[in-house]
């Protein structure tokens, strides 16, 4: 019995020892599906684990009147391998983050200022919609289409957290109308007419 327990102890110890305690992202190295390779631990500093980007408002003078300031592994190397990241969301009056997905992560949004109407659509096409106020939080499951819009009268601010250091992003409107996908194909796939497709391509910079 004792030899078996000893072998189990060795196995657990070796397995645990093979997982590095610190693996700050080496942003100059390759990024793999498992994350970045580890920075030399002798060169790791506390600054690798600190991110000051949430203090500054993003630039909302754009077509969606919104800005996202990411604190992903590329900006916050200490997150490498930890399975989380965050970002600041600024929505000017009338601002919107259009329907989009994060292929690599679920999301939690916490409203810090103003009012934000947010929602997502399940794979069964069930809509989950809520007007959120300061202090409210809402979760968005991984991969599902969701959006946020400013439904108040002033600038809105939120912090979002993700279950991955690199959650990925695809905005549906940009995927359809900000590239060179032929208009005829978009019209067949979306049931929109030619005038609508050409208008949206013109607004978002698409061609074809």
Automatic annotation (TrEMBL):
Q: Which domain of life is it from?
A: Eukaryota
CDD domains recorded for this chain? cupin_OxOx
The Cupin type-1 domain sits at 52-198
In which broad location class does this protein mainly occur, judging by the first location in its UniProt entry?
Answer: secreted
Which sites bind oxalate?
Answer: 102, 107
Which GO terms of the molecular function aspect are on file?
Answer: manganese ion binding
Q: Which UniProt keywords apply?
A: Apoplast, Disulfide bond, Glycoprotein, Manganese, Metal-binding, Receptor, Secreted, Signal
Cysteines paired by S-S bonds: 23-38
Which cellular compartments is it found in?
Answer: Secreted, Extracellular space, Apoplast
InterPro entries, from UniProt? Cupin_1 (IPR006045), Germin (IPR001929), Germin_Mn-BS (IPR019780), RmlC-like_jellyroll (IPR014710), RmlC_Cupin_sf (IPR011051)
Instruction: Please name the SMART domains in this protein's record.
Output: Cupin_1
The record lists Mn(2+) as bound by 100, 102, 107, 146
* Pfam families assigned to the protein according to its UniProt record, in alphabetical order: Cupin_1
State if Manganese is listed as a keyword.
yes
Q: Where is the signal peptide?
A: 1-17
The text of the family note is: Belongs to the germin family.
Kindly provide the name given to this protein in its UniProt entry: Germin-like protein
> Which source organism does the UniProt entry give?
Rhamnella rubrinervis
């Amino acid at each position: 019995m004792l030899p078996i327990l000893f072998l189990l102890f060795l196995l657990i110890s070796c397995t645990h020892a093979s997982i590095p305690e610190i693996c700050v992202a080496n942003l100059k190295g390759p990024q793999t599906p498992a994350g970045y390779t580890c920075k030399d631990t002798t060169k790791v500093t506390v600054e690798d684990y600190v991110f000051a980007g949430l203090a500054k408002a993003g630039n909302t003078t754009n077509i969606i009147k919104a800005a996202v300031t990411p604190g992903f592994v590329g900006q916050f190397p200490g997150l490498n391998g930890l399975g989380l990241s965050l970002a600041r969301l600024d929505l000017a009056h009338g601002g919107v983050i259009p329907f989009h997905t994060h292929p690599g992560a679920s999301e939690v949004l916490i409203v810090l200022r103003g009012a934000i109407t947010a929602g997502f659509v399940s794979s069964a096409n069930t809509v989950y919609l809520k007007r959120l106020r300061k202090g409210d939080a809402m979760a968005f499951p991984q991969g599902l289409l969701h959006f946020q819009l400013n439904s108040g009268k002033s600038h809105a601010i939120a912090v979002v957290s993700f279950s991955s250091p690199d959650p990925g992003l695809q905005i549906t409107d940009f995927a359809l109308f900000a590239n060179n996908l032929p208009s005829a194909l978009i019209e067949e796939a979306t049931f929109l007419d030619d005038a609508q497709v050409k208008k949206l391509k013109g607004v978002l910079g698409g061609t074809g």
